[in-house]
Amino acid sequence: MSHHAAHRQTSFPTTTGIKRRTELATSSAQMFSEFSNPNLDVLFSEEQIRDRINEMGAEITHDYAGLNPLLIGVLKGACFFLSDLLRAIDTRLGIEFMAISSYGSSTRTSGEVRIMKDLDVPIEGRHILVVEDIVDTGLTLSYLLANLKSRGAASVKLAALLDKHERRQKEVEIDYLGFKIPDEFVVGYGLDFAERYRNLPFIAVLKNPDA
Ligand code: IMP
Ligand code: MG
Q1: Is the peptide bond before 76 cis (omega within 30 degrees of 0)?
Q2: Neighbours of 16 (CB within 10 A)
Q3: Is 63 known to be catalytic?
Q4: Angle at alpha carbon of residue 198, lines to 195 and 201, rounded to 5°
């Protein structure tokens, strides 16, 4: 078994998980494993995420056939979702990235938004699909969507993997949603806590952010 395969096997609870963990107890890779970090509670597995994204991709393929949409990913968190989603969309499309900084603590947004990296192309007349990892207060997205609409796009829609709806302060319409989640701080699959955990292949609740 390759190192990588061994690693992934221990990521999720299986009937033989305990045995495997014991077998690998001496390996330093296991000792430093992020994927089996005890501070994480798996919320959506790799497979659940993939299945849901395939469904979203099929829906987007249907809705955007012949429209040559421009998918805009919001750096950095949405890159992972975007890269999987666009491979599930079987129609001609383009991609662009924007970077936005919202001021606040590492777990909460303040509502002040600044564009750190803008688009490289005009979007007048284009069908825009913004791709975001999570909608929390909605402050970041409501600012971004209004900004893109003001540039004369033919349409501006939103695909978000996660919706923490209980926390909404500004109404944001999510046209394509992966999963609704409770008000918990989640990490993985692009989502970070102070830049950590983006590399988890699953989405997990961070049990104690201070640990
Ligand atoms: P909003 O403006 O409050 O909707 O904030 C959205 C941004 O906050 C997301 O793009 C994330 O970067 C960050 N964020 C909100 N909730 C979480 C979470 O549970 N985990 C990781 N990042 C989060
Ligand atoms: Mg973030």
Answers
A1: yes
A2: 9
A3: no
A4: 165
Residue nearest to atom 5 of ligand 1 (CA): 136
pLDDT, one tens digit per residue, over 77-87 is 999 999 999 99
Of 65, 6, 66, the closest CA to residue 36 belongs to: 6
Rounded Cα distance, 197 and 202, in Å: 10
How would you list the strands of the sheet with 94-102, edge to edge? 113-117, 94-102, 70-75, 127-135, 155-163, 176-180
Q: In the numeric block, which tokens belong to residue 74?
A: 């919001």
The conformation of residue 84, written as its DSSP 8-state character, comes to H
- Which tokens hold the place of 27? 């390996």
CA of 74 to the centre of ligand 2 (A): 10
Q: Residue 88, exposed/middle/buried by CB under 10 A (0-12, 13-18, 19+)?
A: middle
The atom of ligand 1 lying closest to the CA of 164 is: 16
Bridge partners of 129, per DSSP, are: 71, 157
Please give the structure tokens belonging to residue 202.
């699953």
Between 190 and 104, residue with greater pLDDT:
190
